[in-house]
Every structure is written in structure tokens, then in C-alpha cells.
Design brief:
Helix content is 31%, strand content 32%. The C terminus is likely disordered. It has 5 helices and 21 strands. The radius of gyration is 54 Å and the shape is elongated. With 336 residues, the protein is α+β, with helices and mostly antiparallel strands. A hairpin with a 2-residue loop joins strand 15 and strand 16. The strands form 4 sheets. A 9-stranded mixed beta sheet has the order 5-4-3-8-9-1-11-16-15, covered by helices on one side. The longest helix has 68 residues.
Length: 336
């Protein structure tokens, strides 16, 4: 006698023959639930290889030989890949013999939003029979969908000419979601999912908007970082230029001081004591006659740039030491 799991798998294969074409399946499944993926490979090909979008080989079936990446998580039978306890990391693309077969979305919680056209798994953790029902709104009338018994018998209570509502052990699959499928789904009178079906273009728009926003944020961050680097570079260059200017000014000041000191030293002249003898001969004569005999016998010269030798007494009183030169001159007593 065949096991109940094998009977369910055979039923699942038969239902998929009528409900699926050779198109890529877009599946949404709750986290910690199971998932079946069908391989539409050549029926005569007994070699099956399943890979994920990252290129990892999940399961292979070559004749009687079977191998798995993780035997506790994956199982392969009659071309189907069974994934146990789906995790967030299981989201993505799945390939069978190099052909893209499915794109999987992993959901969290009971309040879910899925775009139309996708397939959705709704779990029901019940060991006894499953009575599936639906309510459009909380206050609307409850509609029974079907009853699934433990032996696999299914009694449908609602017309489903397209076969979009597919029963599974501990799950309900809704194929090719439509906007009218939005509502509350109950298993054995218990709410298991509150579904909102959105239009496909809205889903694409939301995805595109999210991508654009991520791109804008990335560009903004790069721009801010670049601006900060530019400002820091300008500040450093300005600081270096200012420092060089200051050093140049200091150097010029030192050179100017040295040049000024040398010029003062060169321009220092010995100047005679007494009033200036420049001007007319008469003025010169009067200046010489005003000198005393002692003063007329010698002239005193002051150095270090003193314009008047009379400053000698004041500077000596202040404690400055100045070297003076005395030149004896025979003055002409009879100046004209």
C-alpha cells in the first residue's frame, strides 16, 4: 500500500498537468512552509539537475543515483523538487537542467500582498481534515471552498472551472492570482491569511520605485562623500598656500631688515661739532668767530649717524657708550 505522501504527490502531478504550461512559475510562499517546483524538461530525460540562482546544485537525479546539497532540506521525485521549511534565503530563481523554471518569493506573517498572476501557497497546520473557506470582508458571508480528508479525498463546495484552487497536504495553492481573490482565508474556521492582490503593474512600479530610490540614495551618498573630499582638498591647499605666503613675508622682512641695517651703516658720516657751516661765507665766519679759543683749536666728530655732536653728553648720561673721534685742526684765527 502506497504512503499518503506518495498519493498526494501523484495528485499534485496530475493537477499540475492541467494548471501549468511551459512558462516560468512565479511563486509566493510563506516562510517555514514547504514548496514543490516542477521541472518541464524532456520527459524521456531521466537526468535531472536543480540549481538555484547562485549556481549551487541543490539536487541531482541521474538514473537511480540521487544526490542533494542538503538531504534534510531538499527532496527530488519524478522531476519535482521538494523544498522543506522555506527560509528567506531561499527566495530567488530556480533552474532545472539549465532552464529557468521558477522565481520564488518568500512571505512573512498572515497579512500578505501579492501581485496578480503569481501562485500563492497558504499553509494550514492541521493533522485532521481541512475545511477551507473564504470571506471577502470580515462582515461578509463565509464561502466554503472544499474539504480535504486525511486519506486524500477532496470534496469541492465551490465551482472552480479553471482549477486555480489546488489542495495540498497542510496547504492551499492559488494559481494565477486574480484581484477578486483578495480576502480572508480560513482553515478549520481559523484565520490563516489575509490576502491583498495588487495589479501587476503596481508591483512592477513599486519594485521600480524601490530600485530608483536605492539608486538615488546611493548617488546622493557618493555625491556627499565626493563634496566632502573636494572641500577638504580645497581647505588643505588653501592652508598650504597661506603658510607659504606667511613664510615668504617673514623671509622678506628679515631680508629688508638686514638691507636697512647695512644701508644705515654705509650712510653713517662723521659730522662736525657746532652749528652748520653750510650757507653763505658770512654765516660760516660768524660761526667760527663764536667759538671759544679752546673749542677753536679742535673739532669733535660724532659717529654712528649722530647729526649733532651735542647729543654726545645726553647719550653718555644715559649710560650709552659712544666712540668719538677728535681731530686737531689749526684754525685760521683771521677768518674773512
Amino acid at each position: 500500500m502506497r504512503s499518503s505522501e506518495t498519493v498526494w504527490l501523484d495528485l499534485f502531478v496530475l493537477l499540475n498537468v492541467f494548471t501549468r504550461g511551459l512558462t516560468i512559475r512565479r511563486v509566493s510562499v510563506p516562510e517555514e512552509h514547504f514548496l514543490f517546483l516542477h521541472c518541464d524538461s524532456d520527459a524521456d530525460n531521466t537526468n535531472i539537475e536543480w540549481k538555484n540562482g547562485a549556481g549551487q546544485i541543490l539536487a541531482t537525479n541521474s538514473g537511480a543515483a540521487v544526490s542533494y546539497l542538503n538531504q534534510n532540506k531538499y527532496h527530488i521525485s519524478e522531476g519535482y523538487l521538494h523544498i522543506k521549511e522555506v527560509e528567506r534565503s531561499d527566495a530567488g530563481e530556480y533552474y532545472c537542467n539549465g532552464r529557468l523554471e521558477a522565481e520564488v518569493e518568500v512571505l512573512r506573517g498572515q497579512f500578505i500582498s501579492v501581485s496578480e498572476g503569481r501562485s500563492l501557497f497558504i499553509p494550514c497546520e492541521s493533522e485532521r481534515k481541512q475545511v477551507w473557506s473564504f470571506r471577502k470582508e470580515r462582515s461578509s458571508q463565509r464561502i466554503n471552498l472544499f474539504t480535504v480528508f486525511r486519506n486524500g479525498t477532496v470534496i469541492r463546495e465551490r465551482d472552480d472551472p479553471q482549477g486555480r484552487f489546488v489542495p495540498h497536504p497542510k496547504a492551499l495553492e492559488i494559481v494565477r492570482l486574480e484581484l477578486e481573490d483578495s480576502g480572508r482565508y480560513l482553515c478549520n474556521m481559523r484565520l490563516v491569511a489575509r490576502l491583498t492582490v495588487i495589479k501587476a503593474h503596481e508591483d512592477v512600479l513599486n519594485h521600480t520605485t524601490t530600485t530608483v530610490m536605492d539608486t538615488v540614495v546611493t548617488v546622493a551618498v557618493v555625491a556627499v562623500v565626493g563634496l566632502c573630499v573636494l572641500v577638504a582638498s580645497i581647505f588643505l591647499v588653501s592652508l598650504i598656500v597661506c603658510q607659504r605666503k606667511r613664510m615668504r613675508k617673514r623671509r622678506n622682512k628679515k631680508i629688508g631688515r638686514k638691507a636697512g641695517a647695512g644701508q644705515i651703516h654705509e650712510e653713517t658720516e662723521l659730522q662736525p661739532q657746532g652749528p652748520s657751516i653750510r650757507g653763505s661765507p658770512k654765516t660760516q665766519s660768524e660761526a667760527c668767530q663764536s667759538l671759544s679759543p679752546a673749542e677753536s683749536s679742535e673739532l669733535h666728530y660724532a659717529s654712528l649717524g649722530r647729526k649733532n655732536w651735542l647729543e654726545r653728553g645726553r647719550m653718555q648720561d644715559k649710560g650709552h657708550h659712544v666712540i668719538y673721534s677728535t681731530v686737531a685742526v689749526a684754525m685760521n684765527q683771521n677768518l674773512e
